[in-house]
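Subject: Sanity check before I submit

Could someone independently write out the structure tokens for this chain? I want to compare against mine line by line before I put it in a report. The sequence has 471 residues.
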Amino acid sequence: MFENLTNKLQDALKKLRGQAVISESNIAESMKDIREALLEADVNREVADSFVSKVAKECLGESVLRSVTPGQQAVKIVYDKLTSFLGEAESLLVSGKKTTVIMMVGLHGSGKTTTSAKLSVFLKKQQKQAMLCACDVYRPAAIDQLEILGKENDIPVFSRRGEMDVCRIASEALHEAQDKGFDYLILDTAGRLQIDTDMVQELIRLKSMVCADEILLVADAALGQQAVSVAKHFHEALSITGVVLTKMDGDARGGAAISIREVTKCPIKFIGLGERINELDIFYPDRMASRILGMGDILSLVEKAAVEMDQEEAEKLQAKLKKNEFDLEDFLSQLRQMKKLGGLESILKFLPGGDQLANMPELDGKQFKSMEAIICSMTKTERAKPENITPSRKNRIAKGSGTKVEEVNSLIKQFLNMKQMMKKTGLLRSMLSGNIPTSPGGFAGLGGPGGFRMPSRGSNFTPPKKKRKKR
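---
Independent answer below. Compare away.
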């Protein structure tokens, strides 16, 4: 969602590269471009002006280092200020009480019900027990939705169909949660198309009744500057303790993330990155600033991989590699592991310059589906010994996978070449140990109709000896 903002900021900072010194004359145009980029990204006008003013002041101040170029120093200053404006990473509050109560509030359509379920699943991964409570009595579908999500993810849901007193429902839910020893009670409250007095008063009474420890505002990132206004109104009425920004995977311009924290001084605690139940992440300002400036977020990718990837599978694969027994069955397993991380496109978002890589035709994520279909159409024997597959079997595999025989041939040929290359260079072992080459010409690049592009010449490449010319 930050692609446009990232490109604009990078263009603005390029103008400072190559300058011998930073002066008022050469920084003015860059600061103007940065301000325009922020405004186009729906950043609040006052926040944009404050940001540019602070960056310009520091760029011209005595703190500029002589050991780095002006362009490098400007990037560092913009990164630091972005991080500062986005606040600090803050975890959920833990009360001294038996059960911590979390109220989820926000406008209709912001994603409160889904986010409530996502938060309960997130807490479950942290070895915490959470109970969901359906407090949206005005929209029957909300109760159904919460109960379905709870059932699918083995999360208990407390509901009272027909009861219209939200405070009574929440009070009963709290007693049950305390009796059963739940660590958290998450209240999914009703939303409105706009903030109104009755809605706010009901939330104030509910907050008082259950003595809520956390009041999280669920805000749609696509609202832009309107999200700031919504956050201010809820904060004035309820003293919200944090914000959850949803739909951060969409085509919104991303300004809400920068504006909300600076205007309300409330921390952004979580961000929703997709529709799936596990796509709720802790908000790390420094990592977000890094992604906005196109520098990637390798740390988040590593953490995500540690959670999603099957450690036992990885150990089995490593043992096979030592014996040089890596086959198409193992490769299929790795493709599916990558799916757990959201696919190739999702992974690229975390890499430096990943947005540009994602647009390359060689890195079309659809190729993975074709490759998986081809391998799934093979028997176990064929996956283990792809070099022995006969032409008639290739015809059968192509028909079964909905592909062409040429694609089957290409996959087999490239896989065997890759296996041979890895046997010589130990490349796959390096990948498993975390030393993954990410250059566009390296193994991370995939090309051809379902095939691989081989690694470019690296440190293990031995150039051919030049023949001496005869005199």
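---
OP: Matches mine. For the report I'm noting this point. Confidence is low (pLDDT under 50) at residues 427-467.
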